[in-house]
Amino acid sequence: MLEDLLELDRTVLLFFNHFHTLYLDQVMWVYTGKIIWLPLIVMLVYVVFHRNWKEGILAALMIILVVTICDQVASSIFKPLFERLRPTRDPDFSQYVTIVNNYRGGKYGFASSHASNGFGLAIFTALLFKNRFYSFTAVLWALITCYSRMYVGVHYPGDILAGIVIGIITSFVVYKYLYLVLHRYLFTKGIYSEPIPVYSHENGARYVALTIYILFFIILVFAPLFNFRIH
How many domains does the chain have? Predict the structure, then answer.
């Protein structure tokens, strides 16, 4: 049974890893990196602090906590516990994987930190903003991030799914059992069963979503002009 699942995992990876062109290699290489998303972080920080700096501090701390938990659970617990080699590191399988820019990642890949961090950030901020346009955009951003990790060959779909589960569970737990509790204690003094969604009736969430789409456009148009080795 386990071997059947592992074989399915390999088959699905090869499907996602199969469609390579020089243009897409450059697009996915830039997309899966970190530098390109700095404007998104800046806009997110601006939005959470713009309306109320005190609530902004709480929101920022919770976002940092979510990403930190997601990253540490995936990297410091799952990877050393399961010790599953990345597709690019498996001597019996790496020959079938298309590798971009000779990037192979670390030794172990289960679970994907990119997937856990991306979905943790996307779901927590979606709960925070309560804006449908932003929620759709954030999940889309996280999904493409997950796909980019399979495209460059460093994660199996199983690694990605595990990371997604970690991100979703972490974001819901932190939001419901920590953020709501602290918000109620600090700002509403227990009057409301849930905090007033201070970001949902403003344009802040839309600004963050639009920033994501602008970065999508920049990557699609200008990725071939970027330094291919910046990551």
Answer: 1
Q: Which residue has the higher pLDDT, 185 or 30?
A: 30
pTM of the predicted protein model: 0.91
- Residue 84's φ and ψ, nearest 5 degrees, are -90, 120
Cβ count near 153 (within 10 Å): 24
Say which amino acid occupies 145. T
- The percentage of the chain sitting over the pLDDT mark of 70, rounded to a whole number, equals 91
Cβ atoms of residues 100 and 30 within 8 Å: no
Q: Is there a domain that residue 26 lies in?
A: yes
Which residues, 6 or more positions from 66, have their beta carbon under 8 angstroms from its beta carbon? Answer: 120, 121, 124, 170, 171, 174
230 falls within a domain: no
